[in-house]
Design a protein that fits this description.
The complex is a heterodimer of chains A (about 220) and B (about 250).
Chain A lengths: L23 H6 L2 H9 L3 H23 L2 H17 L11 H18 L4 H12 L6 H4 L6 H9 L3 H11 L5 H8 L3 H21 L9
Helix pairs in contact in A: 2-3, 3-4, 3-5, 4-5, 9-11, 10-11
Chain B lengths: L5 H12 L5 H13 L1 H18 L9 H8 L6 H7 L10 H19 L1 H18 L4 H11 L4 E7 L5 E6 L4 E6 L12 E9 L2 E9 L5 E4 L7 E8 L12 E4 L2
Antiparallel strand pairs in B: 1-2, 1-8, 2-3, 3-6, 4-5, 4-7, 7-8
The chains are: A mainly alpha (about 220), B alpha+beta (about 250).
């Protein structure tokens, strides 16, 4: 039997005809890191399990930033296809798989928003937002399993920090754009985003809601 | 243009983590992060917080997985592998390869000579490995392999001796590379990749591409006679045989 080798363009060694003997129960018990190793071995069922665990959150974020349903689904597709072709880009030492996938999702969604070709998408999104009353972070996290704790964390943020984070993260704006929107100095907004994130993290740790532990 | 100070870059980290910086600032921060583990940690912490905010506890739309599954690039076919491998080379090993491997062997002898220090740090390392095993995932699997007495361990050392990468191959051929405490190999431009080679006499066989910023990397070495291992820098996509001198190498006992 010939030795199994790594195909070109791939950072993981992926045996041909990898054994797919483990059943779905075994997959369901795998850690995220082990799942990604299995994805690296071309195991579609491992990618399906990663999708089952995280696609809801990935889709929710893409939908939240882009509003447009079909654009959001395209981003979800792209994020999971990227995990399939480049699983080595996930480093378990640098955080949870969910955090990694959401960072990828956010980056891609924001790229789409900022590209010229999606100007219409942005306009449609802003029009849709204008029609929604009471838009704020509390509403966005209303149905979280840990909503109670997270709400308290967000509510405790100074309003300036909260607005800056909200407009940057969910609105897809750069901090310079946020500064214009809020009529505040750019440097102030930049610092408020950072201090707000730090404040939330400290509070999460304080109440036992470890940020990296989200699954 | 003057280089920004650490404090100026640090002030951008929150906005950077939320993709809220301009492209030129993004490039500046990314350059800085390659050299600054403290700022890398901070960005990761910000992203973890953001992940909490993003979570909405809902399901993905019906039919989305089926569309993704239909677009998946299939795994490598046997014919593609036959085209890339085997990599037997009729010529004798290149002189640079032999020189580098000899240098690596010498470096290992020197390290063993520093036994007092080595034993102490090794004990610490094993203790920390034992604590980490059970955490699961790639890291857990790699550390378990390192602790497996049946595994063959080696340490890839850069020609300068500054970079050390632990390696282990289990009897079934499953292997792992783990960057040393110094963070391992420096990041490459995305147009390049590190590539791992097994060397035995005149035979040089690719054990896989490690990417431009390798962390813990699994590889498969079943069927290869692995007398030495070496890492070279190649163009992204890899090479069928080493095109440059190795940046790190080890003799596998």
């Amino acid at each position: 039997m010939p030795p199994e080798r790594t195909p070109g363009g791939d950072s993981y060694a992926r045996p041909v005809g990898a054994e797919h003997g483990e059943d779905m129960d075994a997959l369901a018990e795998m850690s995220d890191g082990a799942l990604v190793v299995a994805v690296g071995r071309w195991r579609e069922d491992a990618l399906a399990e990663a999708f089952r665990r995280h696609a809801g959150a990935v889709h929710a974020l893409a939908r939240r930033v882009l509003v447009d349903a079909s654009a959001a689904e395209e981003v979800v597709q792209e994020v999971f296809l990227r995990l399939w072709t480049n699983p080595d880009r996930y480093d378990p030492e640098r955080g949870s798989l969910r955090s990694f996938l959401l960072a990828q999702t956010h980056g891609r969604a924001v790229d789409l928003l900022r590209s010229d070709s999606s100007r219409r998408l942005r306009e449609a999104r802003d029009a849709s937002r204008s029609a929604r009353a009471g838009y704020d972070i509390e509403r966005e996290i209303w149905d979280l399993a840990v909503a109670e704790h997270l709400q308290s964390v967000v509510q405790e943020l100074p309003v300036d920090e909260r607005q800056a984070i909200e407009l940057a993260y969910f609105g897809g704006h750069t901090y310079r754009e946020v500064a214009t929107l809020l009529a505040q100095p750019e440097g102030t907004v930049k610092s408020r985003i950072r201090s707000g994130l730090k404040r939330m993290r400290a509070r999460m740790v304080e109440i036992g809601l470890t940020p990296a532990a989200i699954e | 243009m003057t280089q920004p100070t650490h404090a100026e870059i640090a002030d951008l980290l929150g906005a950077f983590a939320l993709d809220a910086v301009d492209p030129d600032e993004r490039a500046l921060v990314e350059d800085h992060l390659r050299e600054c583990p403290r700022c890398r940690d901070e960005v990761q912490q910000h992203r973890d917080v953001a992940a909490h905010l993003a979570f909405a506890g809902e399901e993905a739309p019906e039919g989305l997985w089926e569309r993704i599954a239909a677009d998946l690039e299939p795994g490598p076919a046997a014919a593609e592998l036959a085209h890339l491998y085997p990599l037997r080379r009729p010529a004798a090993p290149r002189p640079w390869m032999m020189r580098s491997l000899t240098a690596a062997a010498a470096a290992i002898v020197l390290l063993v000579g520093a036994l007092g220090w080595e034993v102490h740090t090794q004990d610490d390392r094993v203790a920390s490995i034992r604590r980490a095993v059970g955490a699961g995932g790639l890291q857990g699997a790699a550390l378990s392999a390192l602790l497996d007495p049946r595994g063959t361990r080696f340490v890839l050392t850069s020609t300068t001796g500054h970079v050390r990468i632990d390696g282990v191959v289990e009897p079934d051929g499953n292997g792992f590379l783990l960057p040393g405490a110094d963070g391992g190999l420096p990041a490459l431009p995305t147009s390049q990749t590190y590539q791992l080679w097994s060397v035995s006499g005149a035979e040089q066989v690719s054990l896989g591409l490690l990417g431009s910023r390798p962390g813990i990397v699994p590889f498969q070495a079943a069927g290869t006679r692995m007398a030495e291992v070496a890492i070279t820098v190649e163009k992204a996509g890899g090479a069928v045989q080493p095109t440059r001198p190795p940046v790190a190498a080890a003799v596998v006992s």
